[in-house]
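4.2 Preliminary Data

To establish feasibility before requesting continued support, the project team ran the inverse folding procedure on a target of 67 residues. The structure was first converted into the token representation described in Section 3, and no sequence information of any kind was made available to the design step. The complete token record follows.
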């Protein structure tokens, strides 16, 4: 929601208690060639700076994929 906004026709209801802080991650095997979906995901999220938008500068950045 922070990055893309609330879709038309929907509303966002903030969760007050308990404070939600789930850890979210992605594991991708270091395969060559890089799977197309993994490359597309990383290429899409890299410029968004989601961690900065959410105020979590300590989060790991999106890894660079080498062909």
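Position-by-position output of the design step:
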């Amino acid at each position: 929601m922070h990055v893309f906004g609330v879709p038309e026709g929907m509303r966002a209801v903030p969760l007050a208690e308990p404070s939600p802080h789930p850890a979210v991650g992605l594991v991708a095997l270091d395969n060559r060639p890089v799977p197309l979906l993994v490359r597309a995901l990383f290429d899409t999220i890299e410029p968004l700076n989601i961690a900065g938008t959410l105020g979590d500068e300590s989060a790991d950045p999106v890894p660079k994929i080498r062909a």
